[in-house]
TrEMBL record:
Family: Belongs to the iron-sulfur cluster assembly SufBD family.
InterPro entries hit by this protein: Fe-S_cluster_assembly_SufBD, SUF_FeS_clus_asmbl_SufBD_core, SUF_FeS_clus_asmbl_SufBD_sf, SUF_FeS_clus_asmbl_SufD, SufBD_N
Gene Ontology process terms (BP): iron-sulfur cluster assembly
Domain SUF system FeS cluster assembly SufBD N-terminal residues, every copy: 20-191
Name of the protein in question: FeS assembly protein SufD
Record-annotated SUF system FeS cluster assembly SufBD core domain positions: 199-427
Ranges that cross the membrane: none
Pfam families xrefs: SUFBD_core, SufBD_N
Amino acid sequence: MTQTLNKAFSGEAVAQLGGTPWLAEYRRTALELFHTLNFPTTAVEAWKYTDVSELDFDSVRPAARKAAVSSAGELPQSVRTRLQNTDVAGYLVFDGPDVVFRDVPQELAAKGVIFTDLRSALDSHAELVQQYLYSVVPAQVPDDTTIAAPGTTPSKSPDPSEGKFSALNAALWTNGAFVYVPRGVEVELPLGAFQVLDEAGSFTALRTLIVADVNSTVTFIDEQDSPDLVGAFAFGAVELVLKDGANLRYVSVQNWGSGVTHIQRQRGDLACDATLNSLVVTMGATLSRSEMQSYLRGPGSSSEMLGLNFAAAHQHFDHYTLQHHAAPHAHSDLLYKSVLADEARGVFSGMIKVDLGAQKTDAYQKHRTLLLSSEARNDSIPQLEINANDVRCSHGSTTGPVDQEQLFYLRSRGVPRTLAEKILVTAYLEDVLARVPLQSVVKYIEAVIAEKVGAV
């Protein structure tokens, strides 16, 4: 990877983003860290199977500013189709760095719910943003200490892959969704953010910040979509803050076009008796690196981590997960399923970490991969790091082709081989979706899967 200084990643670029003094200073510090750290190589364990040395940062530029549209009918077809089939309480649409359309009913504000873009929240809710921004996904220095924004106390992370790309997003994020749900409030329908990109050779750096206060309940859907774009990049960060007794369901659907490189870290910070249910769906981009982490720092907290992905052609999907148990009597359950076709490459690295004193931990990790081609390859590395003696932890991983007995059963009943494989793939992924109660979201994901399966 070339190391020349792109103006898009310079101090001048940070200065143009503006912001309050504390934010500007944090951005500058994060940018310095970005330029100090080396790009990850395959010599680093966390990046052992994903080579980013050929990525070209020399000519990439920020996505251009976009004007707002006056009606939902002017939105991209992919977004319009999604909205027609989903019941949401409110939504934002981002095109590159800008909100081009928003539909946020007054009923939400009447409950005290804040749902806006992060750039606007810096003006209208400055104290809340300063309190929580960078508190869960900070820029990280090499010795695993954090650069904290003034007034914040970032949660400690044992993740060995913290580094350059987190610092890049921390320095250059342009916008994103901000959600705050007050104590005891339940938002019945999901909130949503739709991110689109339409410029080859550009990059977008968005950040999602969701704060669920004590005993609150909310569901959030994060979706990313684009046509095929040569040399485009998406650098994302998702911070999920769950106070005591809070319930958050977070759904991420990544469907970037071919040619896009996607690198994102998602991390949840769970207080006492908080519950986080997450679903990560990866279908798009040529190279996708997604890091999903749950930090269970409160006794009685619970994290369900679901994931499904389907890679074809020359796509490369890398998923890194962390279930970090820092408190006793916490529970986590991970189920990820992958399908690889053609010459696609899949990587899964999952860690269950139990801290000293986190007794009565109950943690499970399961990853399954289905190979549709002899040229497809999967590397799966489930791991345990246990520092307490009264725990129940298990992990497992399997990789294999389509079950020949099942295939024979369908073919013996007149089903052509190609159709039989599609049926088996759909059924293979279904048990993940069966654990998602949002039927409109499930139907949409099933449609995306059907389109992907149809292309195989």
